[in-house]
Amino acid sequence: MIPKKALSFIAAASFAAVALTGCATSDSAADSTPAPAADPASLTLALVPSQDQAGLVDTAKPLTDMLTEALGIPVTGVVSKDYQAAVEAMGADQAQIGFLPSLQLWQASDMYGASVVLQTERNGNITYPAQFMTNNPDKYCDDTPVERDGMLFCNGADALAGPAGLDSIKKVTGAKVALLGPGSPAGYIYPVLALKNAGLDTDADIEQIPVTTNDASVLAVYNGDAEVGFSFWDARTIVAKDKPDVGEKVVVFALTDEIPNDGVALTESLSPELQEKITTALADYSSTEEGSAVLTSIYSITKLAPADPSTLTVVADAATKLGLQ
Description:
325 residues, alpha/beta, D-Maltodextrin-Binding Protein, domain 2, 2 domains, 6-stranded mixed sheet, 5-stranded mixed sheet, 20% strand, globular
């Protein structure tokens, strides 16, 4: 069991920087047995900046509109400053619903008692690998890249399941590498841990190129700003609509161990009845053609299914191995 404490990098995350609205609650009647707090008059849904941060709230508007209608309570979507800020916002009850990556789901539950109610499925998969991408396949590919669905892979990464090709990551020494912040399982934790396991000192052996989103990591490799980039599988599809040749110019040469999928957490301040209504509304929505299309546009989610919070411990373990808590 991992000790219950905040990650060291959480201290640097300021939920005050997140534009989140507070929620009004009713005063409970004064008597010898305090009545439970009333559910809020409005709800805030926190989104993390995994991709296309500027347009994420607009993209999610059909989702928040659906929740508003289903619950009879106004629901507003906001994008947090970073992954950790979303957790802190939930801890402060500035957001009551969180669409969070696996590590942040674990944190919200472990630190603040949030309920992890749903996890995502992507084309039937409940886990995914982080990917190593490059614009220099001659250096990193031990075989000829192969095409799958318009995207190039080498070193067995076309199997689309991790781990694969990790023997090749030692060649990253000396390269410019695009990576997300330490809160990102796929953009930082799993690939950095893989590099450390391969014997690299990621503070000294690579030149880190910080990016804020997965699609920005892909673009850094595509544009030549970095030779290697980390992202979730397969973030290249996000970029493909604007860069049709991204699957040829950016080659995936390695995949990490599998990571539990992201999902939905609800703050403990919400009544069990309201939590059940939110959970049911989201799950039912994801089962419709319209809902699946909206969720795919937000986070490439094809379905929301009941969560198994015990699966999230492996992500917390990985963070511990990197000294992040």
